[in-house]
Design goal:
Layout (H helix, E strand, L loop, with lengths): L1 E7 L6 H15 L6 H21 L6 E7 L3 E8 L24 E3 L11 E4 L2 E4 L13 H15 L2 E7 L2 E9 L7
Antiparallel strand pairs: 1-2, 2-3, 3-8, 4-5, 5-6, 7-8
Length: 183
């Protein structure tokens, strides 16, 4: 398993560099040429989100990008150190940790819950879980942009996993690979 790690200061001007490096490593790992634009866009969204979180929380620590080449897939992990609240990805899956137990999430007053879409209540906040529900306002202004970025990433990448806690978060994205053609 070959890994390339990139650390960069949480400044918007470094996002372009991360996108270019990710696309170059993905190409070398054997990701299909037709998918490279999606790789570039997804990494740009994830890095922009991480930079925004670092800036809004006044963090000076760098944003972490790991580019991991496995035998049959190529993965990218974008990590930040900003404290996170729980949220959902489109389709109602909880994004704050892969295994949200039933005691962590319960149905709201409308009867909507983790298995039925609608709004899910977790750690005291209502979370969007279905397209036909309007989420409650979120007090932090940057939360909306972060969730929009996650929605874009979900549309670009079939295999995406988001884990977060009070110490930071990681967006892990994966694409299948073929045998690379080396010049």
């Amino acid at each position: 398993m070959a890994t390339v790690e990139l650390l960069f200061s949480a400044l918007p001007e470094h996002v372009r560099t991360a996108r270019l490096v990710a696309a170059a490593v993905a190409r070398r790992a054997g990701v299909d040429e037709a998918v490279l634009d999606e790789v570039r866009l997804a990494v740009g969204e994830a890095c922009t989100r991480a930079v925004g979180l670092h800036m809004s929380h006044g963090l000076s620590s760098p944003v972490r990008v790991s580019l991991i080449e496995d035998e049959k897939k190529f993965s990218i992990e974008v990590g930040d150190e900003a404290p996170h609240r729980r949220f959902t990805l489109p389709g109602g899956t909880l994004g704050a940790g892969a295994s949200a137990a039933p005691q962590d999430a319960k149905a709201n007053e409308n009867g909507n819950g983790p298995g039925g879409g609608g709004l899910v209540e977790a750690e005291g906040a209502l979370l969007p879980g279905a397209r036909d529900e309007i989420p409650e306002p979120v007090p932090e202004e940057d939360e909306g942009d972060g969730e929009m970025g996650l929605a874009v990433i979900s549309g670009l990448v079939d295999d995406v996993e988001v884990t977060t806690d009070e110490h930071g978060g990681v967006i892990r994205m994966s694409w299948p690979t073929t045998e690379p053609v080396l010049p």
